[in-house]
Amino acid sequence: MLKKARLLLSDSLLRTSGLMFAAFMLASIFSYLFQIVMGRLLGPGQYGLLNALLSLMTVLSVPVGTLLMVVTRKAAGYKAKGNYGGAKGLFEQVNKAVLAAGGLGLAVFLACSFLIRDYLNAPSLLPVALLGLAAFASLPGPVNTAMLQGLQEYRWLAISMALTGPARLAFTSLPVLAGFGVGGAVGGVIATGVFVWGVTYFPLKGLLVSAGESSADRHLQFSRVIPVFIANLAFAVMTQADMLLVNRYFQAQEAGVYASAAILGRAVMYIPGSIVLAMFPMVSETKALNASGGHLLIKSLLGTMVFSGGGALLFYFFPAWTMGTFFGAGYRGAAPLLKYFGLAMLPMAFLLVFMNYFVAREKTVFAYIMAVCAVLEITAMHFFHAVPLDIIKAMFAAGVLALAGGAAAQLLPLTTSVRTKVGSGGNP
Predict the structure, then answer these.
(1) What is the pTM of this model?
(2) Is the residue at 19 inside a domain?
(3) 258 near 388, Cβ under 8 Å?
(4) Structural domain count, the chain
């Protein structure tokens, strides 16, 4: 028994996932405190608008999220080969490109802000305009985080995760308490973006200064970015578009109640985040060294089954208690939605693991499977939304379909390989 315990503790994925899980849980606690505080201070109407804006920000950040996954993968490859000059050059090139593209994107967003205000039924233009600034302010910090993840500097990554949650809670709640409403909360998101950049830049700077001269090579290839972008966009649409459509199709009060159930229910999907943070660079490193990473996928899926499955069961059997405890009596009407929202997010949790694994291994087919499922989900939500529960059913169906595609994409090459070896007389 003691020997097995030592073997478990010596497993790098397990140890790193444990560290990231602790940091992730602390960040999650403050993330949910943020949602609870906003829900109680703003009320259902304004709270629904805030979450619609934040969901829109998540979708808008897909290009950056795509780039960061590629950066993490590339940095892990440089680390595997001891090429820290390449990592330094990568960091410099990506920062210049992100800031330039972000400035252009901000100008386009502000030009379209009137249309966005009308689509979301926002009472004023200010929170929408501030959202564009928040998206721009959040660009540099994640670049630093991606580099830390790729270089497997998990200690600094955990520290930044642990500090971001308390900072966002403070930066957003104070303006709301001062009476600035949704606009004040979005302004706090801007301050959080600047804070994240500071926390992650200084340890990374120390690492890269000692790397010597930066490499001027072409670090990223456009053809390899496209599938990652498609996968990220599809996942963002599948997990965030519901808030935009609910805010469009239902009254403000009903949208706010739905938002409270969605915020809690999505915890099931976010739980594997700590596992993915540890798994992604490790799988990328196995790819760079031409080694197999299948064992990392299996371990990650098993961890997701335990933690995300437990969360889904908690929401299914105790929805009323959970809603009352976290959001108060005004949101108890969300309990029937929460009961099924956790189950709908369970396939998405596994999908998150599959997506990161395939991106790390540079397998592109899964991105297109997810894109098809995202289109089917939006189509179902558009035509069938008599009640909010219909939106949840559409998410569940799309998640199961995409998950089946992911399993097939992983298993079919293995089956083909075995058949080839048997047919040629080799040992399977």
Answers:
(1) 0.67
(2) yes
(3) yes
(4) 1
